[in-house]
Design brief:
The chain has about 350 residues and is an alpha+beta fold. About 55% of the residues lie in helices and about 10% in strands.
Length: about 350
Amino acid sequence: MKLINFALNIAIKFSNSTNIRQINMKNVLITVLALATVSQAAILIMNKNNLGNISSSDAIIVQREFEGETLAKVDGVDIKDSEIKERLNFITQGRGAAVDLKAIDNKGIEALSKEAAVQRKILNNAYDEGIQNDAELQDKIKGFVENVYKEKFLEKIAKANVTDEKIKKLYDELVSKAKNSSQYKVRHILVRDEKTANIIREELKTLSFADAAKKYSLDKPSAEKGGDLGYIFPEEYVVEFAGAVRKAQLNQVTSPVKTEFGFHLIKVEDSRKAEIIPFEKAKERLERQLGSEGVKAFIEGLSKDMKVEVVRAETAKEATPADAKASATETPAKTEEKK
């Protein structure tokens, strides 16, 4: 119970800090459950390590060097504030940076320090078992590291394309267009192929658009909100999507619309005269847009002159009309059941 109370205290203090308006009770409960579950695992491990068979796993070995102020010692090993922050980031799903460690009492620091030490012991046990020598795991680690490198590099590409001049220019262009434009309240469902889109469109005769979006849409952020994109400027979207939005009849679902992302079913629920968003409120969104454009241009430049030659011995079987007809009788729900 003490640990659960501690987790609640962190969540409450966290929710009262700045930029935390989206925190809700679901997040608080996740925090409590995550910390409580990890704590139970910690108790089991500590009991195991007290059975008498001492191995290198019983010593707390620091695999990485943490910097900053020492907040506690566990079995003589320093626990730095940066390590405590790391555990808070895990517990609060990446939002630990907003927590002021000075607001956490000594019991809280004690609990977090124990948790940090337990994590080290888990790692030490893994090393004792020879996990680090597993070939499959090594391949996964290499793949993970490569992806981290690529992601970090593309972040630099994105950042290089964002300047104050470009942000202001893009804002002015959008404001100019908005003066003679409208905003549309839009929902959409994104799927990979046209056949699936048509099947879902038929299913919408008995299923609400919001429920279908939650169930099928590949655009997860909007899917969680029933496909809702809010009030949008069509100009901010790809040409095909924008054109479909402008032509759509209110509260009618469009035919599948093809874009570079897949096929969309679009429903326009309202339209209004465009509102001009103040520059400071629009700035962060414009930065993301410019960054995305920079990455897209870079990737297109890399692939532009590539010559691809398929040299495999066998080719995939081409679908016949009969195959297509048989597949069309299945709903997405039935396909899920087969899996």
